[in-house]
Amino acid sequence: MTPTSLQGLKVLDLSRVLAGPWASQLLGDLGADVVKVERPGAGDDTRHWGPPWVAEPSAETGPQAAYFQCANRNKRSIAVDMATPDGQALLRELAAQADVVLENFKVGGLKQYGLDYDSLKALNPRLIYCSITGFGQTGPYAPRAGYDFLIQGMGGLMSLTGRADTEDGAGPQKVGVALVDIMTGLYATIGILAALNHRQTSGQGQHVDMALLDVQVATLANQAANYLVSGVAPKRMGNAHPNIVPYQDFPTADGDMILAVGNDGQFAKFCAVAGRPEWAIDERFASNPARVANRAALIPLLRQTTVMKTTAEWVAALEAAGVPCGPINRLNDVFADPQVQARGLLQHLQHPTLGEMPLVACPIRLSTTPVRNRLAPPTLGEHTQEVLAEWLGRA
C-alpha cells in the first residue's frame, strides 16, 4: 500500500468541537494514527448539534449530527472519563506513547488531572503538546473562554464584513462558517509539523500555544496592512474590495455574478466584451488606482451594463476573453459543478453502522504520499479496546 506522509505518528486528541478536531482530522488525513478521547455517554459536543442527522439517534450509535462528521474522519474514538483517577492514569499512559497531544481546554484546565504540558512532558520529553484556546496561554484575557463568533467580533473581521453603513441592511456580519476555528486548526497543524521537524534534529518536544484571537488578527492580511500604513481603520464595503476595482458582485439579467478584475489588461478585455472600449482609455478608469479613486462613478456604469446579459452569457464571454468571473453558487450548485466533481471533492466512506456516508475530501494533493480516507467518523467509544490493545498492549 502507498505510504502516507505521517505514517506511524501517534496523536492523542483531547479536543472537541471544531478548531482542535479540524487540526487532528488533517493530521489523520495525512496518515497519523489519531485517537479521539471522548466523554463516556456524551462524547464531543458536536455529536448533539443537529438536526440534520446522518441517521436518527439510537441506543447503539447515540447522536450522529452532520456537524460532527465534518471534522472527525480518519480518527478512532475511545471513551474515557478524565474526571476519575483511573481515567487520568489511562490518559497519562497513552500520552507517554504519543508523539502529539492536542487539547482545547481553558488555560490550566487540565492541570488538576495531571494532563497539562508540564506533567506530560515529565513522562514523555519528546511530546509535542498543542493547546488551542481563545486568547492563548498568556495575557490579561488568557483565563477567558473564546468562541469563533466572539473572536470574529473582537478580532476585527466583523468590522470588515457586511454592507456599507450607507446601504440598507448595514451592520456587522460574521462569516457563514466558523472560519476562525478552521484557520486556527490549520495554523495548529502547521505548528505541530514544525515542532515535529525540530524534534527530528533535537530530540526535544515542545508546547505549541495557539490562540483564536492571534490567528484572527494575523489573517486580517491586506486589511491590517492598509490600517497600519494609513492609520485609517477600514470600513465595511459589502462585496467590494478596498484596493481593486472592479472586484465584486454585479447584477445580471437572471441573477448575479462575480467580476474579479485584477489588472488593467483584464479591465480592457472586459470593456471590449461589454462593448464599451472607451472605458479602458478614460483617464478616470484606465488604471487601477484611478478606478479605486473613481469607484463611485464606475460601478453604476458597470451595473447598467451587466444586467443586459444572463450570468451564463457573461461567464462564457468573459472566460473566453481571459477575464476572471463566475457565478454565485448555492451548495447544490457547488457539488454539481464539473470542476468540483473532477477534483473528487465529494467522497463517500463506509461507516460500520450508518452505511455509506458523504464527506468533503481533504484538498491536499500529494504526488508520492497521497491523502487516504481510511476511517469514517467514529461512533462514540468505537475503538476503545482496539486502541488500548495496540498502544498499551492490553488484551
Please describe the biggest sheet, giving its number of strands, its sense, and whether it closes into a barrel: 6 strands, parallel
Total E-strand runs: 11
CATH architecture assignment of the largest domain? 3-Layer(aba) Sandwich
Count of individual helical segments: 16
β-sheet strand percentage: 5-15%
Structural class, from secondary structure content?
alpha/beta
CATH topology title of the largest domain = Rossmann fold
Order of helices and strands: EHEHEHEHEHHHEHHEEHHHHEHHEEH
| Rg for CA atoms | 25 Å
In the CATH hierarchy, what is the class of the largest domain?
A: Alpha Beta
Distance between the termini: 28 Å
Which range best describes the helical content: under 10%, 10-25%, 25-40%, 40-55%, 55-70% or over 70%?
25-40%
InterPro entries: CoA-transferase_III_domain (IPR050483), CoA-Trfase_fam_III (IPR003673), CoA-Trfase_III_dom3_sf (IPR044855), CoA-Trfase_III_dom_1_sf (IPR023606)
Protein name: CoA transferase
Keywords: Transferase
GO molecular function: transferase activity
Task: Please explain how this structure is put together.
With 395 residues, the protein is α/β, with parallel strands linked by helices. It folds into 2 domains: 10-218 and 343-392, Crotonobetainyl-coa:carnitine coa-transferase, domain 1 (Rossmann fold), CATH 3.40.50.10540; 247-330, formyl-coa transferase, domain 3 (2-Layer Sandwich), CATH 3.30.1540. The protein has 16 helices and 11 strands. The chain has a 6-stranded parallel sheet with strand order 3-2-1-4-5-6, sandwiched between helices. Helix 1 (19-29) crosses helix 7 (179-202) and helix 7 (179-202) crosses helix 8. The model has no long low-confidence stretch (mean pLDDT 95). Keywords: Transferase. This is CoA transferase. It comes from Ideonella paludis.
